[in-house]
Amino acid sequence: MKLHWSPKSPYVRKVMVCAHELALTERIELIRSVAAMLRPNERLMQDNPLSKIPTMVLDDGSTLFDSTVICEYLDTLAGGNRLFPTSPEYRWPALRWHALGDGLLDVLILWRNEREREIPLASLMMAFDLKTRTTLSLLDREVSQLKRAPFSIGHVAIACALGYVDYRFDALGWRDIAPRLESWYDELRERPSLAMTTPRDAPP
Questions:
Q1: Cα–Cα nearest to 168, from 100, 117, 107
Q2: Does any domain span residue 185?
Q3: According to the UniProt entry, where is the signal peptide (predicted)?
């Protein structure tokens, strides 16, 4: 399999964390791909017309996108019920946390794009800030539930979102907003799959 990949993308990181957790990394060839919003990547668009990463090319030449679909595919490839639980007791909390982590990432990426404009729209910046702080506060209240639940795609998504906050929004000071979440995350990020996929700057 081939994966259009970047060391900076939190959505790609989700896929790579899952690949490490499921012992599938040796089956994946990484293709360094730049996917800038204002500069569509013609090579990438041959596999994904949306010019977005992650995009996975399977052995038969068919393609999968986005991170949610690719992560679930990898889970199925590894036998299923590993990171995407099938038991209702664990499935719905895992999928809810997955949606919450991905939703937070969506907000953060839009926020970053807006703040890089010559004149950012103040009302949008305030909305992004409020949504981020409110999400962090909610997760802070749910730490005990996260600790009790089996490690799942929900944990992966939240960890990748928090890693992106560290990488792109250091000035936010999110640990002051969510101290219990900080303690949980600092322990979780020592997990090999997360430690090996920490976002980093690298040449295109």
A1: 107
A2: yes
A3: none
CA distance 179 to 18: 26
Say whether both 41 and 93 belong to one domain: no
Q: Among candidates 50, 80, 56, which has minimal Cα distance to 3?
A: 56
Of the two residues 38 and 16, the one the predictor is more confident about is 16
pLDDT at 204: 46
- Calculate the average pLDDT of the chain: 96
From CA 33, how far away is CA 80, in angstroms rounded?
Answer: 29
Does one domain contain both 95 and 172? yes
Residue 200 lies in a domain: no
Dist CA 29 CA 133 (whole Å): 37
Question: First and final CA of the chain: distance in angstroms?
Answer: 21
CA pair distance 97, 78, nearest whole angstrom: 22
Pair of tokens at residue 114: 């807006």
Structure token digits, residue 193: 């799959």
- Whether the link from the prior residue into 192 is cis, omega within 30° of 0, is no
Asked if the model's pLDDT at residue 130 lies above 70, the reply is yes
